[in-house]
Amino acid sequence: MRGGFSLEPSVAGRTDNAPPARLTVIAPPSRFVPVDPAELWSYRDLLYYLTLRDIQVKYKQTAIGVAWAVLQPLVSMIVFTLFFGKLAGLPSEGVPYPVFSFVGLLPWTYFATALQFGSTSLVTNAGLVQKVYFPRLLLPAGSAIAALLDLFIAMLFLLVLLAAYGVHPTARVCWLPAFVLLAFLTALGCALWLAAVNVKYRDVQFAIPFLIQVWLFVTPVVYPSSLVPPSLRLLYGLNPLVAVVEGFRWALLGKPFPATGMMIVSTLVGLGLLIGGAYYFRRMENEFADVV
C-alpha cells in the first residue's frame, strides 16, 4: 500500500536462512560399558589432586608422618613372630619368621588401608559428589593409589630387614610389579563394591573393621598356604588375596611357586571382583548425589 506500512517482514529481518541453534545433550554412558577410558583420561588431573589430597589429609598434623607406613606392619610382625612363630611354632618354609610375616603383611596392610579409605570415600566426599559432576570412580581409585605410597615406603624397610637376615632376592623380583598391580586391582574392586553399598547402607563402615580382622586370618599372612590340605586349596583360592600374598613371597623370597590351580582361581576371583564392582558401581552411580 503506497505511503502506508507493510505487514510483511522485510527481507533483512527474515530469519528463515539463520543457522539453527546448537543443542548439547548430556546423556549417561552406556550401562554395558562400566568404565569410559577416554572420560577417565580427561579427568586425570583431578585424580592426581584427589590422590595428593588423600595423602596430605592422612598424615596432616601427625608426629611421625609417613613413618606410620612402617610402624604398623613392623609392630604386627613383632607380635606375630612372638605368638605364631615362637609360641605356636608355625612353619615359615625355611625363611626367618620375621621376614616371612613382614613380606605377607606388606600387601595385606596395603589392601586393608585401601579398602578402609576407599569404601568410605563417597560418603566422606558427599559435598563434592552433590555439587559437581566427575567420574565417581575417581574417589575410591584415588584412595587405592594413595595407599601405594605406604606400600613403597614399607618396601624400603623390607630391604633393611632382608639384609639383616641375609636373605637375598633372586631374579624373580622382576615379577613383583605384576603382583603389586594385582593387589591394586583387587583392592579397587572390593572398594567399589563397598563404596556403592555404603552410600545406601551406612552399616558398611561399622562392618569393615570386623571384615578386615576376619579376612586377615583366612589369608596366608601368618602361615604358608602349604598348610592347607591339597583337597581344599581350590576352595581356599576363592580368597583373592591368596594369589597376592603368595605372589609377593614367591617374588621376594624365592620360595617354590604355590599350587597353580589355587593361584589361578585366586587371580580370577580378584579380577572378577573388579569387573563386577565396576558394573555395580556404575549401576548405582546415578543415585549417589541423591542418597549420599
Q: What do you see in this structure?
A:
This protein has 292 residues and is mainly alpha-helical. The protein has 13 helices and no strands. Helix 4 (97-119) runs parallel beside helix 8 and helix 4 packs antiparallel against helix 11.
Main sheet?
A: none
Mean pLDDT: 87
Based on secondary structure, the structural category is: mainly alpha
Molecular shape? globular
Task: Determine the strand fraction and express it as a percent band.
Answer: under 5%
Using brief descriptors, characterize the structure shown.
single chain; globular; 292 residues; 13 helices; disordered N terminus; mainly alpha
Please summarize what this structure is.
By secondary structure, this protein is mainly α. The chain is built from 13 helices and no strands. α3 crosses α7, α4 (97-119) packs antiparallel against α11 (241-253) and α8 packs parallel to α12.
Write the layout of secondary structure elements.
Elements: H1 37-42, H2 44-59, H3 68-87, H4 97-119, H5 121-124, H6 126-131, H7 138-165, H8 176-200, H9 204-217, H10 233-236, H11 241-253, H12 260-284, H13 288-291
Helix pairs in contact: 2-7, 3-4, 3-7, 4-7, 4-8, 4-9, 4-11, 7-8, 8-11, 8-12, 11-12
